[in-house]
């Protein structure tokens, strides 16, 4: 039986850390992440993972779930801003609200997930574009004696 010395063990190649072979670039850090986005009454739970740019929203594609091109553009704007459109697969579960609220919630969820994946590189651009700010505007409640939140019944003098 042969004995190994400490010097022989140190010369063996053991990985110290798992890094990419290429030099790190701005878009090199691709990590899975998850986040939640909210807008009005809509809530979007978003998971991003390294991939080829596939979208799954409540089991449907982006084009099937948001047929309006404006909503598709709004939802994908954080990825376009960071030039990561084809590097992440996005899986989202959206509940509540209307179509515009759901699109806003999904955009915030994607931006937060990208921030969680690589805050050092992604946060400044996302913050400057305003994607990390929750839109706090919600529907105003109806008041007693009024027809809607602010609309009063017609006034009659006699």
UniProtKB/TrEMBL annotation:
The record, for InterPro entries, names:
Ribosomal_Su5_D2-typ_SF (IPR020568), Ribosomal_uS9 (IPR000754), Ribosomal_uS9_bac/plastid (IPR023035), Ribosomal_uS9_CS (IPR020574), Ribsml_uS5_D2-typ_fold_subgr (IPR014721)
Instruction: Please give the start and end residues of each transmembrane region.
Output: none
Pfam families reported in the protein's UniProt record: Ribosomal_S9
Where composition is biased (Polar residues), the residues are: 15-28
Report if keyword DNA-binding is assigned: no
What biological process terms from GO does the record include?
translation
Stretches of Acidic residues bias are at 1-13
**Molecular function terms in GO for this entry?**
RNA binding; structural constituent of ribosome
Q: Which SUPFAM superfamilies match?
A: Ribosomal protein S5 domain 2-like
What are the start and end residues of every segment in region (Disordered)? 1-38
| Entry keyword Transmembrane | no
Gene Ontology cellular-component terms listed: cytoplasm; small ribosomal subunit
Identification of the protein by name = Small ribosomal subunit protein uS9
Q: Organism classification, top ranks? A: Bacteria, Bacillati, Actinomycetota, Actinomycetes, Jiangellales
Query: What is the gene name?
Result: rpsI
